[in-house]
TrEMBL record:
It comes from Thermogemmatispora tikiterensis. Belongs to the PyrK family. GO terms for biological process: pyrimidine nucleotide biosynthetic process. Keywords: 2Fe-2S, Electron transport, FAD, Flavoprotein, Iron, Iron-sulfur, Metal-binding, Transport. The keyword Amino-acid biosynthesis does not apply. Residues 1-101 form the FAD-binding FR-type domain. This is FAD-binding FR-type domain-containing protein. It comes from the Bacteria. One of its GO terms (molecular function) is 2 iron, 2 sulfur cluster binding. InterPro entries: Cyt_c3_hydrogenase_gsu, Dihydroorotate_DH_ele_sf, Dihydroorotate_DH_Fe-S-bd, FAD-bd_FR_type, FNR_nucleotide-bd, PyrK_electron_transfer, Riboflavin_synthase-like_b-brl. Its cofactor is [2Fe-2S] cluster; FAD. [2Fe-2S] cluster binds at residues 222, 227, 230, 242.
């Protein structure tokens, strides 16, 4: 983990409230692994409002540039979304444990619920660069929430699941995931804890040891293991999300 100053090379608005920030950050681009994140200062130089840094994944890497896909939620993200090209950003990272893929793997299934797709984007890039067959299935409740598929590497197959098609059919991860699971050698989930547990209950394959991991997102205060505010109860005892996560084996997840 280290502190980086990165120059914002581009701030592209993809749609209202959704931005792609492109940062000149060569050392971070070298160091970060899929599933790790950075804590970004979201305040003017000399100001401490908001006081706490905000966590963000690196969405994708091109050469020495790291991209962040930014969804505006509150004050910190709104401030970041207003940064013009040329602005300097202050980042702490990479933090946490990323996705751990088994060594012998040829097919990888990524499953996202809404904006949970940000947990998986860099993994999709790296896995397809390594020649894995990668499929991303994303469930959204409304069509505009879908992932801008142009951001994915061409090799990644992208399937959108939504009940918002006016067809009266309820298509959800629970109803469509069976076929995808029998194809996959491993599964990475960017879904809520409740959905992850529901899927695990429903699909026997997701209960296989070492087969599935999940990203657990929770507002983080320090990101460095100091405040102890992010403890997650698991079947193997408490774990700090910021340090031992945010990626966990699906097997050890328990009801909150
Ligand atoms: C490990 C990690 C990686 C993340 N990566 C990204 C990313 O790549 N891109 C991105 O846009 N966002 C990401 N987020 C979410 C992002 O950090 C929050 O949206 C941001 O901190 C909100 O700050 P704010 O000041 O804008 O809003 P605040 O005013 O702090 O909060 C606004 C609302 O958002 C809620 N909120 C804050 N954090 C979360 C969270 N983690 N999950 C659910 N609700 C939350 C608050 O409870 C509040 O209701 C990530 C979160 C985590 C934990
Ligand atoms: S966020 Fe402070 S210990 Fe995890």
């Amino acid at each position: 983990m280290r502190l980086y100053r990165a120059t914002l090379a581009e701030n592209r608005t993809l749609r209202r409230g959704l931005h792609l920030l492109e940062l000149e950050a060569p050392a971070l681009a070298q160091a970060v692994r899929p599933g790790q994140y950075c804590m970004v200062r979201c305040a003017e130089e000399g100001s401490f409002d908001p006081l706490l840094r905000r966590p963000f994944f690196v969405h994708s890497i091109e050469g020495e540039r790291c991209r962040i896909l930014l969804q505006v939620r509150g004050r910190g993200t709104a401030w970041l979304a207003r940064r013009p090209a040329g602005a300097e950003l202050d980042l702490l990272g990479p933090l946490g444990q990323g996705w751990r893929l088994p060594s012998r793997l040829s097919t990888l299934l990524l499953v996202a619920e809404g904006f949970g797709v940000v947990t998986l984007a860099l993994l999709a890039q790296r896995a397809s660069e390594q020649g894995l067959a990668v499929t991303l299935v994303q469930e959204v409740t409304q069509l505009p929430e879908g992932y801008p598929a142009a951001l994915l590497p061409e090799e990644v197959e992208y399937h959108l699941v939504t009940s918002d098609g006016g067809t009266g059919q309820q298509r959800t991860l629970l109803t469509v995931l069976g076929d995808y699971l029998s194809w996959a050698d491993a599964v990475c989930l960017g879904v809520s804890r409740e959905t992850a547990l529901q899927l695990r209950r429903h699909f026997e394959r997701l209960r296989r040891p070492g087969f599935a991991q999940v990203a657990v997102l929770h507002p983080l205060v320090c990101g460095t293991g100091t405040c102890l505010a992010c403890a997650l109860e698991t079947s193997r005892g408490p774990r700090l999300i910021c340090q031992e996560g945010p990626i966990f084996d699906l097997q050890i997840l328990t009801q909150g």
